[in-house]
Specification:
It is a single chain. The chain is α+β, with helices and mostly antiparallel strands and 219 residues long. 35% of the residues lie in helices and 25% in strands. The chain has one domain. A hairpin with an 8-residue loop joins strand 7 and strand 8. The protein starts with a helix and ends in a 13-residue tail after the last strand.
Amino acid sequence: MRTLNYLAFALVLLALQWLSGTACSAQTTAKISSTQAIMDYLATMPGDAAGMGPELKLISDSTLARVFPGYEFYGLKYMHDSAGPDASSLLSRSNVFAVSKDANVKLIASKGPLQEFFGSQLASVQTDDMAKDAVYCWLRLAEELSYSGDYQFSIPVDAISVYRTAEEIRAAGKAVLNFSSGRAGQIGCTLTFDQTGALDKVQEASVVEPVATTPGGTH
């Protein structure tokens, strides 16, 4: 009987290991397909072949994943000593890609496309916490769009404020360059939502000291 118990226990362990390996493999495949979708997208852009200069990285953030569960986000920055994207390219020196689960790629290279993405993909904001999450996500992606090199920002979540009226909800916050960066600056934003919870207006002010680029750089 004891032998049978040991055998059953061993079979359970093997099953758990197999399930764990399958889950890890699925996550790896998802990440590979997302990055490949971006590289395929880049390959279609004039004068900007995939892998020529920019650095692509996954933006790993639990709040972004919760607020936009159908997307993975990637940042693509040109190094400060590179020439930057071709003049005819839709890319800027700092970009965000939102990749859906079906590998549809959305390029976000400036505030305009970022607002369009929020307007179409953000769930209706009905609570203060949802408004605060929206501000956090905006600032998190705005960080990536600011050309500040590898310097890190902090978003004081406790300082995100929400103001309600009968007609709208307004939420405001800021992302501040970490003191250790040696550079000064911050990104502030106010998001306004209408009575239905849809994004109505975005106000953003940035005073981030940019990183110097080479004479041949663009954007």
